[in-house]
Design goal:
single chain, 135 residues, alpha+beta, 2 domains, 3 helices, 25% strand
Length: 135
């Protein structure tokens, strides 16, 4: 049975959320632009498709981060924290990967973005930033 999301608030004032504020999300629809999410059981927001690095399903609950409120009052959301926290969490993923494969990985600066996305669930840019911090 599909949930009714008509009660959700679609437009907010610019100061309703802080940039990079952590929020609770529930996936409720997939569009050409990305994933529509319920924010804190009260608002609706959008995670742009080019920022999605994993597979999700309707009803899935996640943590997310407010990236901003647009001029029209709609809320943009990221599934990754701000750059500093995101690079740090990716750093930990790389270390875990290295432990799993015995200290030598086939992943590096020459790896394809698709392979990096599939293994680490991040963009190649973030992977390179975290990998650079290891050296």
């Amino acid at each position: 049975m599909k949930k009714n999301y008509e009660y959700l608030i679609e437009h907010v004032e610019p100061d309703e959320f802080s940039r990079w504020e952590e929020v609770d999300l529930e996936v409720y629809a997939f569009t050409d632009l990305g994933i529509q999410v319920v924010i804190n059981d009260e608002y609706t927001g959008l995670v742009y498709g080019n920022q999605v690095y994993d597979k999700y399903h309707e009803g899935q609950k996640l943590k997310g981060y407010i990236t901003g409120v647009r001029e029209d009052g709609r809320i943009d959301v990221s599934l990754q924290p701000d750059k500093g926290r995101h690079v740090h969490s990716t750093f930990d993923k790389i270390l875990d990967h290295l432990k799993t494969v015995g200290g030598k990985s086939e992943f590096g600066d020459k790896s394809s973005p698709e392979d990096i996305k599939r293994e680490f669930k991040v963009s190649k840019k973030v992977f390179k930033q975290a990998n650079g911090a290891l050296v």
